[in-house]
């Protein structure tokens, strides 16, 4: 304090702290409620009317055991894992190879191909043309319809290309003098020096595949091929009830629907939350450096 008056900016900092605390509470409390409801005993969930903020009668994993007992949710979880793993691997291979080709100025067709990539950023193909293309390739009602159409992102290609273009030219020239081919330059110099941007782009693709439901809704008519996010939309957002047969618990007592829904929601969130901390340190180096060097 100066002369009995508050320090300049103190009131502003207090207001900011209160405002941020309110925002954090608005985000954290619903998340705590989701976790608590999924772990609360059935009697407590029923008594609370479907939503428990803090379980007071212990923790019960029945909801998780029910959805992971081999029914619809278990199958959807395996499908989402397959789509995410295979889709991310294919997307990284295509994006990195295309980004490397576009970063080499002597590549044949470099400029026209780069122009096509940039145009795709400005113009969306539209829903009907995309559906017709998938249909003509015979991918309808196949998991490849969820993987292939989004396997290359123009934005990610531009970021990777910018990062590759910013690699030290001296190292590449020295490798060329030693007789390294373009493929060896890509494998032994480009990829090892670009782990940060590859990790970030891989996270973007992985989260995109994991959270994608619209393509599955559009292209998959067989419910046995639905990924987890489409099951989440059907049984949580739309409120369709999961019976014992759907859960692989025929003849057994089914937990409250709210507990099942919150458990499905947690299972759909946890994998992404587990991956983010390991990739977070690469964000500034990977994305920002790639964008600036472009």
TrEMBL record:
Coiled-coil annotation reads none
Source superkingdom: Bacteria
- Report membrane topology: Multi-pass membrane protein
Q: Which CDD domains match?
A: TM_PBP2
GO cellular component entries: plasma membrane
Predominant location category: membrane
> What keywords tag this UniProt record?
Cell membrane, Membrane, Transmembrane, Transmembrane helix, Transport
* Keyword Transport belongs to the record: yes
Locate the transmembrane regions by residue number: 14-35, 76-101, 113-132, 144-164, 185-210, 259-279
ABC transmembrane type-1 domain residues: 77-279
Localization, per the record, is:
Cell membrane
**One Pfam family name from the record?**
BPD_transp_1
Q: Family assignment?
A: Belongs to the binding-protein-dependent transport system permease family.
Q: What is this protein called?
A: Carbohydrate ABC transporter permease
Annotated source species = Kribbella speibonae
